[in-house]
Write a structure and sequence with these properties.
Elements (H helix, E strand, L loop, with lengths): L1 H64 L2 H4 L3 H14 L3 E8 L4 E4 L13 H8 L4 E2 L3 E2 L6 E11 L2 E11 H11 L5 E6 L5 E5 L2 H4 L6 H4 L8 E6 L5 E7 L8 E7 H4 L1 H48 L15 H55 L4 H23 L5 E2 H9 L10 E5 L3 E2 L1 H20 L9 E9 L2 E9 L27 H8 L8 E7 L2 E9 L9 H20 L1
Parallel strand pairs: 13-15
Antiparallel strand pairs: 1-2, 1-6, 3-5, 4-5, 5-6, 7-8, 7-11, 9-10, 10-11, 12-14, 15-16, 16-18, 17-18
EC number: 2.7.13.3
Membrane topology: Multi-pass membrane protein
Pfam families: dCache_1, HAMP, HWE_HK
């Protein structure tokens, strides 16, 4: 029941849980798209700012290059102009003018005239193009400061007569991107065309001059701007937007967030939702357990306890529950009504059983009286034939013994050993115990018990007259066993007089002289026909020199229609005794 209550609570919570999962998936997808748009826009804006710096430097160099003192490469006048210009700008510290051979003509820092800059790539590029030449990450030979050099050709008409160059200090560039600010967990990286970091926020001192890690360096020369979602060397998943190097963009710019930081609001909302659902589920389960125990399990346990008490013998146990209060109250009231009805039926059954036992006892008494009357009639009938009278009386006594056993068991069944002991008791003196019974307990139906009693009596009578019990040391062994639904019984005589196979078989198995040759005696017919055909009996006799071997096999479950008790007693038992009386008379 508790499991069912939990299932009900979980079923009730499943819509809320499903809604939470849906909101989680939907919000995460929306946040994912939003973060990608955000990082791309941040990278694009940062690249735009860097380009504005480059354009500013370009404008500065163009304006300075057209000054006559600079264009004419007058050393002193050029130096004064450059000092004046450098004092007014903050992104650069030195400006140099080179002749057509790349040698220093003048500068604002007082460097040695004639210093050779022709080996610098950005200088050679400036001589080859009219566009601004932007160099890569460089460490200044003079100041040892990290810089990004830029150069522009000085023209006189269409002729290049020199180069004006300057350098953007990376400290200043770092300050510019720091001033932009970053959202929590965000970063911006600026690198040259080779993937060397020029500026980064946060952690400039850690990354300045270092190459971009392998997972990202392919983006420096990508075909177009975009976004990506990757796991870095530090194992952190990052979502970033990037603007690669291009003819119009001399620097690589990227901006992004760690995925954990980007989805932190979603994670917090999901966690809060889960906590709320868990708390709600806990409260619902507590309420379900309380209500279930109080209003469901309690009444059910009470009903079960009452039924167990009633089963254990407390016939007065009742639930005392009333119907209108609740459904379980109706169940309890119905159980009480059922127990009352069962008690009424039990009392009625007990009364009927008592009457039946009374009738059975009366029947047993009348049967015994009838048997006694039959014996008295036999004595009068066989007045001059005492031997026949004794045989008949013993047969009637065996039949009566079988009926006594059946009546003691209410005509339901009889034990095989009990039937044999009652039938063979007159032939086995208490002190000698010449008849041995051996076999497992078996239960016989009424018709089998009566038949076996008569057959055992006939066999014992013959053993006393002609078989092993005739001698003082003679013995009889009766063994049986049950094989599935059949009884296999063997009567074995030992230490008696020698026997031969007579021409007649039956009760007078060894007394062939009592009848004429070829005439079957009554005992023989009795043994052959005592068992009803419904029990499928099989009988065999083996007359060995050392004693009779008699085998009997019959079913304990009827294979055909079961005869009524009256039919069984009249036709199979009493009828045979009556036939016996008629034959012996």
């Amino acid at each position: 029941m508790k499991k069912r209550l939990v299932a009900v609570v979980l079923t009730a919570l499943s819509p809320a849980l499903g809604m939470l999962v849906y909101n989680e998936v939907s919000a995460r997808a929306e946040r994912y798209a939003e973060v990608h748009r955000q990082v791309f826009e941040t990278a694009r804006q940062a690249a735009s700012e860097v380009n504005s710096v480059v354009e500013g430097v370009k404008a500065l160099l163009i304006a300075t290059a057209v000054v006559p003192a600079v264009a004419g490469q007058d050393k002193q006048a050029c130096t004064d102009v450059l000092k004046s210009v450098a004092a007014r700008v903050t992104q650069v510290r030195n400006i140099v003018v080179l002749d057509r051979n790349g040698k220093l003509v003048c500068d604002n820092m007082g460097w040695e005239v004639g210093s050779d800059f022709s080996d610098r790539d950005y200088v050679r590029q400036a001589f080859r193009s009219d566009a601004l030449s932007v160099g890569d990450y460089t460490v200044s030979r003079i100041s040892n400061a990290p810089i990004v050099p830029m150069a522009l050709a000085i023209k006189q008409g269409s002729e290049t007569v020199g180069v004006i160059a300057t350098a953007v200090h990376l400290e200043w560039l770092e300050q510019r991107i720091v001033q932009r600010g970053l959202p929590p967990g965000g970063w911006i990286t600026i690198a040259d065309r080779n993937g060397t970091v020029l500026a980064r926020n946060p952690g400039p001192e850690k990354f300045l001059g270092t190459p971009i890690p392998p997972p990202y360096n392919a983006l420096v020369q990508a075909q177009q701007p975009g976004t990506t979602d990757r796991v870095g060397q530090d194992g952190i998943r990052r979502i970033m937007g990037y603007v690669p190097v291009s003819p119009d963009n001399p620097f690589y710019v990227s901006a992004g967030f760690s995925a954990d930081q980007a989805f932190a609001p979603i994670d917090r909302a999901s966690l809060l939702g889960l906590v709320m659902i868990a708390v709600g589920a806990g409260l619902a389960l507590l309420a379900a357990f309380f209500i279930g125990n109080r209003f469901i399990l309690g009444p059910i346990n009470h009903i079960v306890a009452v039924l167990q008490r009633w089963r254990q013998g407390d016939l007065a146990a009742r639930t005392g529950m009333t119907g209108p209060s609740s459904e379980l109250g109706q169940v309890g009231a119905t159980v009480d009504s059922l127990l009352d009805e069962l008690e009424t039926r039990r009392c009625e059954a007990a009364r009927v059983e008592e009457n039946r036992k009374l009738v059975a006892r009366e029947l047993a008494h009348r049967v015994k009286n009838t048997m006694a009357m039959i014996q008295a009639i036999a004595r009068q009938t066989f007045k001059d034939r005492s031997q026949e009278n004794g045989v008949f009386a013993r047969r009637v006594a065996a039949l009566a013994g079988a009926y006594d056993i059946l009546l003691s068991e209410d005509w339901k069944s009889a034990g095989l050993r009990d039937v044999l002991e009652r039938a063979l008791q007159p032939f086995d003196s208490e002190g000698e115990r010449r008849i041995t019974l051996q076999g497992a307990p078996c239960t016989l139906p009424p018709e089998a018990a009566v038949a076996l009693s008569l057959i055992a009596h006939e066999l014992a009578t013959n053993a006393v007259k002609y078989g092993s019990l005739r001698e003082r040391d003679g013995r009889v062994m009766v063994e049986w066993r049950q094989v599935q639904d059949r009884i296999e019984l063997e009567w074995r005589e030992e230490d008696g007089p020698p026997v031969v196979d007579p021409t007649l078989q039956g009760s007078d198995l060894q007394a062939s002289g009592h009848k004429g040759a070829g005439v079957e005696g009554f005992g023989s017919r009795l043994i052959r026909s005592a068992f009803p055909r419904s029990l499928s009996p099989r009988i065999s006799s083996d007359f060995r020199p050392d004693g009779l071997r008699f085998h009997l096999s019959f079913a304990v479950v009827q294979s055909g229609p079961v005869p009524s008790r009256s039919q069984t007693t009249q036709s199979d038992a009493l009828g045979k005794s009556q036939t016996l009386a008629g034959l012996q008379a």
